[in-house]
Amino acid sequence: MPKTLYWIQGGSCGGDTWSLMNSDTPDPVELFEAFDIDVLWHHALSSTSATDLTLLNQRILAGDQHLDILCLEGSVINGPDGTGRFDMLPDGPRKDFIYKLAQQAQFVLAVGTCASFGGIGAGSETMAGGLQFNQWEMGGLLGQTYRSKAGHPVINLPGCPCHCDVVVGTLSVLAADGVVKLGHYNTPTDWYGVMVHQGCTRNEYHEYRVEEKQFGERGCLFFYMGCHGPLVTGPCNKALWNRRSSKTRVGVPCFGCTRPDFPQQYPFFETRNIEGIPIELPDGVSRAHYMAYKGMAAAAAPKRLMERKTNI
Amino acid sequence: MTTIQKIIPLNRVEGDLEIHLAVDRDNVVTMAKSVGTMYRGIENLMKGRGPLDSLVITPRICGICTTAHLNCAAKALDMAYEVSIPADAHRLRNATLMVEQLQNDLRHLMLLFMPDFTRPHYADHPLYEEALARYRPLKGQSTVETIQETKKLVEIIAILGGQWPHSSFMVPGGVVSVPSVSDIVQCRHILSNFRKWYEKRVLGCNLDRWRAVKTWDQLQGWLDEKPAHRNSELGFFIRFCRSAGLDSLGCGHDRFISAGGVDQPTSDGGIRPLFPAGIFTATGTMPLDPHKISEDVSHAYFKQTPAHPFESRTLADPYTEDGRKYSWAKAPRYDGKPAETGPLADLLMADIPLFVAWVRANGASVFIRELARMVRPTLILPAVEQCVAHMAHANAQFYTDTRKRPSAKSFGIITAPRGILGHWVVIEDGKIANYQVITPTAWNASPRDADGVAGPWEQAVLGTTVRNPNDPVEVEQIIRSFDPCLVCTVHAIRAY
Asked: Does ipTM top 0.95?
């Protein structure tokens, strides 16, 4: 029996779909074929007519069409004033349709930060929310106690966009009847157990506190340029983007896009600090020991790094 | 009953779009409304933020033209901080922007447009079986190849800018990345492989052979010349469109707006656009004057504010009782009138004879819009190659120091994959006081204006005869020929 998949967009830029298209082994075509996934509907990939889509939707909601995996890309738009009128389908607010679909699905995936936590538009007039979280708070559209038909909470796959390996990996596990182990904020530990910073080619700069103060200088971006690499989890430097690089490797600070508060309310490209020391230190460190270590590390910094001879 | 009303939700567009139609007893469309059904409120998210935040937030307007929004935001900040960026920074920005255009043109064609040829509507068409073999969603040979080839192409953006989609490597003063010569060599290899695929499979000939096609007789000659031409994506597309009558379907206002080609650094330290920005009509062209751009909200769910994007605001009016209003897309106007944008507008401003002659004689159509998209790479690809080649030198400089200014009023206008894109920013006390975005799809998807004049694709749909009013494939194809991106219609709608 093939596993059925329904992919729906909420308040979305479409970036998670195009990120998925980056996938290489397997690419999406190979993925669906190899794991016998029947794509009932995907806004960019299906050629179903509007009439047939309406019929499909009716069959799913009536329980006549089995639905294994529901993916939401984009936020749930609740505004204005909780009405959902900022995002309408022909027969009502989209949020109501998403809610009904989720009651029929064996598994529900929130693909990207918007679907997971609200993301772009959270806390604004559009009242963008996630499926089971509103930023840090559990709840969201489906509520804290929601469980999909197979008995699981929403599986959150944050990232703006979500890395293709995460989507492909999670779908592969589910299609093979495996278990997705969830950690903080119901994200799979396989991809969200690692800090973004891990694997960054600028780690040697970080070790010796050789910090970048101006764009293009080359150095660690943590102390001055607003990098969230040591603060948030995600596979960017483990899996790399487009098989090639990552933002931090080329000198773009990590913006913390997997975190429930993305996009942060304080300015990007600068580190909030008290007398030059970041307010937020790497996840879990002791402030006093970290400061002592950084002071000694800076004093021990090799000349070749200070002079950027490594060309990284 | 003389008319029936239909609401057509459209898929294979980026985002959410409905077309409301009235069709008479002869199945002729007598009324069309383009209805953006979603409001994401992104412009208002910018208010009160640090100016550089536009480099992070605005790319998230659209997941397929994210680099274009980044470029536009960076250009607006260059102007705000009165900085001119180094030549190599121009080249790097240009290369990534144009790579994004290339992937978009091909993905739109093969993944979003061509699948219409596989629908039951065309089951009796002699080329239907071949269309199925090529374009069946997730299965067709061309579909699969396009997915594979375009993802390799965007690796260039990852090498030069960290990732695609959604990076923020362009900043006022240039770009943050400092690619090594070996990085640039990698980009050149990727481009060279892409060119081989594009020439062999999409064109069926090399770029020079295609560029020699300057008249419609020569096009026929090209088609007849050899099977490789007839059987390429381009050859198949031309044969299918003509026999299905798509070359006379979907004429709009025939007034086109283009932001012109990328700013290319010249050897004497200046800047020359790859092709000029302007307005094209059958009677001639005019250079683009940004002051003539305005937005009308008479038929959109927004409150009235001044019309020019420096002064206008985005004030959602969801509970309005004004019965005229029907869309979350505003109506951009140039000199008070609607204009169509996209690859066709670009090729007209680039004065490509084949397209100028066709539009002068026949007006726009589904066929000519998509043909423009299919061959725009013949203009863009050599320009990307040149940018990348010129970057590969030891003294390349990618950033120049900038001084932030507490207040400024500036804008950036560029050519995004789907046409003209503009960002307008007002900075006060070091923070964003107003941010307005006018996307290509806003131009094309615009609703009526205060004079009652329809938007470009509303106009293009009017008068169309549909075979089956319950499944009006013709109307969908007309809309898709504009490559709708409603996610982009920020205030606005979601439709790719």
From this structure: yes
